[in-house]
Specification:
Blueprint: E1 4-7, E2 10-11, H1 17-26, E3 28-29, E4 34-35, E5 50-55, E6 60-63, H2 74-77, E7 91-100, E8 103-113, E9 116-126, E10 130-132, H3 135-144, H4 151-155, E11 160-162, H5 164-185, E12 188-194, H6 195-204, E13 219-229, E14 232-243, H7 245-252, H8 262-272
Parallel strand pairs: 9-12, 12-13
Antiparallel strand pairs: 1-2, 1-5, 3-4, 5-6, 7-8, 8-9, 10-11, 13-14
Length: 283
């Protein structure tokens, strides 16, 4: 059974060899609308392209690339409601990689009137890290489609697995570093992740203060499922939870506060909004 279920944003089931040869040459990510940024360390000109794999005794579809969560811009649409100052007539922009104390936030959904930032919400994307390498599985799939690959790659017995423990451990730590900032300035931070990862985290950590969802909380968990639709998989919001900085700290057994002036973040956003950052809904 093929364990790679999506490659370059397309389901691996039921497509012709010529189609795959074209996709592998193009190396295009439909979610970023640019070349796939997942490249081989030994061959930086070769994009890996694996979005989703089948794993475990239940053969669940597991998302291994964060960009897969950008399907139809749904994560941004689902994050509009914390923009409590947003009004009809404002433009919605997406600004990538905002610098805040504790690191960077993957995306910010920004409500803009004219050139003035009215409100914003931070959005982090988290998928499950793999152990080993998915490359041999990818190459065996392409070989099955009649595409020439390196025989050593296709014959490799190197396995891959899901690094549930490390992903579940690092995700709340990273969120805690940023939650204090958003809590302090009265803004919201959304963590978009797959439902399987959220359930694993809930089993591993103290989620007593994580419930809701409540709009007054600074930190929101948006868990997405993948369901079969035709020959492909469709992303859909399955569950929502929320908490504040202290809730994240409790689940980790930590306590910290990271303060920043709101005007510093708004200045960053206003400097980067342009016609290219306007939110576009669709493929």
């Amino acid at each position: 059974m093929n364990r790679v279920t999506e490659l370059f944003g397309r389901p691996t089931k039921g497509r012709a060899s010529a189609h795959w040869a074209e996709l592998v040459r193009g190396q295009w990510c439909p979610y970023l609308d640019t070349r796939c940024t997942k490249v081989r360390k030994s061959q930086p000109d070769v994009s890996i392209g694996t979005c989703t794999v089948r794993h475990g005794s239940e053969q669940r579809h597991i998302v291994i690339c964060p960009h897969r969560l950008l399907e139809r811009s749904q994560v941004f649409v689902d994050s509009i409601h914390p923009l409590t100052l947003h009004e009809p007539g404002n433009e919605l922009h997406v600004v990538n990689e905002l610098r805040v104390p504790g690191g960077r936030v993957d995306h910010c959904l920004v409500s803009v009137r004219g050139t003035t930032v009215v409100d914003f919400v931070g959005i982090e994307l988290q998928t499950i890290d793999t152990t080993g390498t998915v490359w041999p599985e990818r190459q065996r799939f392409l070989q099955s489609k009649g595409i020439a690959v390196d025989a050593a790659d296709a014959e490799s017995a190197k396995p891959f697995g899901m690094n549930w423990k490390m992903t579940a451990k690092t995700t709340p730590v990273q969120m805690h570093h940023k939650a204090g900032t958003f809590d302090h300035i009265g803004k919201h931070l959304v963590l978009a992740l797959q439902d399987h990862l959220l359930h694993y985290m809930a089993d591993q950590f103290d989620f007593a203060d994580i419930g809701g969802p409540h709009l007054g909380d600074a930190v929101h968990f948006h868990a997405y499922s993948l369901s079969q639709k035709g020959s492909g998989l469709r992303l859909a919001l399955a569950e929502r939870l929320s908490t504040d900085e202290s809730g994240i700290a409790r689940c980790l057994g930590l306590a910290a506060s990271r303060n920043v002036d709101l005007s510093q973040i708004i200045s960053q956003l206003e400097a980067r909004i342009s016609s290219k950052t306007v939110l576009r809904i669709g493929p």
